[in-house]
Amino acid sequence: MSAETPAAVPGQFTRRRLQFRAWRGTRPFWAGLLVMLGGFLILYFPYAHLQLGHLSMTVGTPGGSSSLIIGGLLIALGLILWFQQHIRVFGGVAAILLALVSIPLSNIGGFIVGFLCSLTGGAMAIAWAPGAPAQPQPTDEVAAQGGAPAAAPLPEQRGYGLGEPNDLSGTNPANGANGRHSAG
User: Has this prediction a pTM greater than 0.85?
Assistant: First the structure.
């Protein structure tokens, strides 16, 4: 850092963090993240070249192309869950189905870890519901007056007991049936 570098505005990090938190709260963020992580793990293992000293290990399987397709679709579904949250149920069901299909087609679903991440993320996407908008807080004037929030009025209650014109029990002598039901 040099002397010419302008200092960061105090609170800029906090403001950005709160903006990200507000954005994250309006969508199934963690569900999308888990689906993308599962897709990456399913996609990664067939193409990984692991080095153990001078020993090179390659997990080459015939499921490489299916891993590429399933992993790519899961990553795309995770992004869709972030940016198109109104189709969260479709994205969640599709993620669960792709995770299930990945078990036989791509290295036991990314060695079970990718399968579990995608399955959990899909279930979280289906279960996520948007929150209610924040209600305005009562002002200090209302609190100073000692007024508690008024209770909601109860709906009109009508008693449909004996003697009412809408008594359908058939046991009221006032309706002319005198306990007899007419079957036509």
Answer: no
